[in-house]
User: Fold this.
Amino acid sequence: MAQNKYVVLVGALLAQATIAGLYAWSVFGIAIERETGWPSDEILLAYSIAQFSFALSTLLSGRIVDVKGPRFTIIIGGILYGAGLILSSFVTSPLMLYVTYGVITGAGVGFVYVSPIATLVKWFPERKGTIIGLSVAVFGGGSIVFKDVIAWLLVDADVSSAFLRLGLISAAIIILGGLLTSVPIGFKKSNLQKTDEDFTTKEMLKTRKFYLTWIMFWLAVIPGLLVLGAAKNIGIEVAGLGDAAAATIISILAISNASSRLISGALSDKVGTLNVLKGQFVVTILALLSLSFLATTPAMFYLGVVGIAVGYGGFLALFPTFTNQQWGIFRYGSNYGLVYQAYGLAALTGITIKSIAGSFTNTFIVAALAAAIGLGVSFFIKERKTAPPISS
Assistant:
């Protein structure tokens, strides 16, 4: 079959958009709480575990993409993602939900997520920052669609039926996207020669820059993970919004998140990835302080959450680009899979801070301090300005 890079782009992004249903969790969460009476923090923990499983699974999926290619990896991800949602329709306790949605669905996200990023840079080597930004923007923005899909499924059905239907729909779309995704004709891993500027994963682990980058990534995404997973809850608790108004936060966050991913990726090609990262830390800190002390009106509240989404979206576009720039393409899938573990720790850190701090307002103050430390770490990293070329 003749290959067309734009067909591959559509297939990869179709799969990427579907797993964005993860970011619409608060729609499910509110419905589960009302239907079962389970505590909201226990329900939110399912989302945090899913994010942790998502990150942890990239250790394996990144390696599989390097060896088996994106089609195989995406299809496996589609099966896991769909199966986790389908099995969630049978749960009778939060613990069961942690396994089905948290572990299995989260792992499915991890298998799908790394594939477009690792694949599309091979098709569009001259626009690495832009194409990575587009890929993660679709992941961030897809929740707009799936927020409405989940809400529609819940209109005339209970949570169990909604999980079942969403699982079947999602698996079908992801597998279709996987079938359309491939590496360029003639591309073989053996043809991609390691240069002096490329690092294997073992070599990357010996660098001081890896650990600084890991810490920076961990501290950067704590606020965004917490806000995106509990968007509707935060609107109700912090700003006193009604259900309908609180639900709109998900769309606002998704648009801000996706736009920032796309713009940050393109901007990194022009002014340097580390410079844009520092700017996103500043935006995040200001937004968190705004939510902590100034969110007395809906307008100020919306401004604060938009700022967090902008920072979070930028981080998710910039760290994969930064990984490519600093350690090369030779083991990019495996290397970024390891860097991405900081994201998983951040998911658990956020829910831990919330459980200790009690209120979201106090949580935002602690998160602002974490982001400030992350900004400080960024000044100890020296950026390599040019990335190794991608062979195909």
Notes: The chain has one domain: 5-378. The chain has a mean pLDDT of 86. The two ends are 18 Å apart (CA to CA).
